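Design review, sub-item: ligand-bound model
Attendees: FS, YL, KQ
YL presented the inputs for the 3,4-dihydroxyphenylalanine complex:
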Amino acid sequence: MSDIKALESTYSIAILEAASLNDLEVVRLKALGKQGEISLLMKTLGKMSPEERKDKGVLFNDVRTKLSKNIEQKKADLATQALTARLVSETVDVSLPERPEEAGAIHPLTQAEYELTEIFRSMGFHVAEGPHIENDFNNFSALNIPPEHPAREEQDTFYLPKREKEGVDGKILKTMLLRTQTSPVQIRTMMKKKPPIRIVAPGRVYRSDYDQTHTPTFHQIEGLFIDRNIHMGHLKRCVTDFCRAFFELPELKLRFRPSFFPFTEPSAEIDIECNRRDGELILGESGDWLEVMGCGMVHPKVLENCGIDSNEYQGFAFGLGIERMAMLKYGIPDLRSFYDTDQRWLRHYGFSAFEALMGGAK
Ligand code: DAH
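KQ shared the predicted structure:
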């Protein structure tokens, strides 16, 4: 009698104190396993007198059932505890900021293109695109660039192997090339659409050139505005507003310097006011001038090449280098560094996605 009671209390405590499912299984085997103490005690029932067996049988069974139940209960408790512990240890706090070492960066070129197109968009321009592999007509002839123009020479242009194409009088050889400027997008747009036209075309261009200030690929943004009664005053207002917005200098002075482009007449290059102090370039301060873009009134021949009546319509165009604009605005000294894919450079000059959305405020 005292044996079974002693065993009951020993095992009840052991069950309660079991810290893991393994511990609990050890206790179960010791008490209720084949060779367990309770099981062995049950076996003694056979040798007892019927009287004694009746009393002790009930008692032993009760203890066995009770311990079994306790074990089951404890098992369930341990499982709940384990689940709670796992949930706590694996919780992800989604409100924490992202880990900086994993944050990517927006390349300054992407950022500059974004800022440029945003400004032009706000002035009512649409963004247009064209292919990088162009034909000779769109890249040169239609833009009034005669065959003897230096831009056509091999050292500037990447030509593709000539392809045969069916022409009116049989097979003709078609010259294809990697576009050397975004100006062919002007041609493509005017061929497709009737005026009024107001587009900017950002994109990659290619020239066979490599030194400190030239890379074989770079980026330009082209602007084209065609309508009735358009004159140089519209061009000046448009690019002045653009430069002041892009460089965030509301008083910035611009200089229109007469120049030459085959596709515009008259043509001009635009300089912005700047100053150099202790080797540093300060935009918007008087003293010196810095060239930022080319522009002009679209040449009547270009309009006619695209089927637009030059007596009825006029327009202006402009073109600028995106790398150059990014270098000036973000203070990047070396053009070639844009293409070095140097992680440290990108971390230094790159923009976070949030900054990019907010218009590049660093
Ligand atoms: N296409 C010229 C270049 O690559 C840039 C340019 C100058 C474009 C004047 C224009 C323009 O549309 O009007 O050098």
